[in-house]
Specification:
alpha+beta; 17-stranded mixed beta sheet; 6 helices
Length: 287
């Protein structure tokens, strides 16, 4: 079975986009991992699948990480899908049904897409954490007990869980080494996305992200939203910031009138092709 796909990205955070609105696709975890493999498959951070809408949106959208696990939200992937749906309809708006809720999207000038990511959640049960704790400063530390390298991150849920360490200089910390340790920390029963955030002004942040189930990525839209909200919540910045990631800049506004987060950034189509799912599937997926 050959299925058409688009390879898209938002600031280098790349996706294989599949359309299952007309015909359901069977995508077991082993097959998802094969598609995402950068040597033997197409290669991507996440697989994004469009399905028929169920709640009045333009499409239901599901996101899978490169390890085959499903994610509740994906900011850059949402912008990519919104651009496709608006191109199809000829309209400047689109609504996406996701596990994280119904997301309203709008086309801006210069090819930028804004997604309303909804309200952030801060309660320990909403992150979720394994125990009751103040999510402003978590009891998490890395390094020797008497001289930790990192300590006291903050937590935010913006459709998926995020843990943010605010640091003086991002480059002095090895996120590739400790990212998986924090992702799988017992405090986070559903695992967690891990960010290093550096405040560069009252209206700007520098961010590096280890994504749950994907590793270090060029950009992460939900991490940019979570870090911007966390910075404002802790008094480091105002409610409008530019977040610079390895792949580029996202503009984040945490709207005071309703607490919704608005994320604005570019999208791009890299190429299109066809996937022979039977040929690509590893033996465990075919059995």
């Amino acid at each position: 079975m050959t299925v058409p796909f688009l390879k898209m990205h938002g600031l280098g955070n790349d996706f294989v986009v599949l359309d299952a609105r007309a015909e359901r696709l069977d995508l077991p975890p082993a097959l998802l991992r094969a598609i995402a493999d950068r040597r033997r498959g197409v290669g991507c951070d996440q697989i994004v699948v469009l399905e028929p809408p169920e709640e009045g949106g333009d499409a239901r959208v599901r996101f899978w990480n490169s390890d085959g696990s499903e994610a509740g939200a994906c900011g850059n992937g949402s912008r990519c899908v919104a651009a496709l749906l608006m191109s199809e309809s000829g309209q400047a708006t689109a609504r996406l049904e996701t596990q994280g809720g119904l997301l309203g999207c709008r086309m801006q000038g210069d090819g930028l897409i804004t997604v309303d990511m909804g309200r952030p959640r801060f309660d320990w049960q909403d992150i979720p954490l394994a125990e009751r704790m103040d999510t402003r400063v978590l009891d998490v530390r890395l390094g020797p007990i008497d001289n930790p390298v990192l300590i006291g991150p903050t937590a935010v849920n913006v459709g998926n869980p995020h843990c943010i360490f605010f640091v003086q200089t991002i480059e002095t910390h090895d996120l590739a080494r400790f990212g998986p340790l924090i992702e799988n920390h017992p405090l986070f029963p559903e695992r967690v996305n891990v960010s290093l955030a550096q405040v560069t002004s009252r209206s700007s942040l520098r961010l590096k992200v280890w994504e749950r189930g994907a590793g270090i990525t060029q950009a992460c839209g939900t991490a940019a939203c979570a870090s911007a909200v966390a910075a404002a919540r802790l008094g480091h910045t105002g409610r409008e910031v530019d977040v610079t990631l390895d792949g580029g800049v996202l503009a984040i506004q945490w709207r005071e009138s309703d607490d919704h987060i608005l994320m604005t950034g570019p999208v791009a189509v890299a190429f299109s092709g066809g996937l022979d799912l039977e040929m690509l599937a590893p033996a465990e997926a075919r059995s």
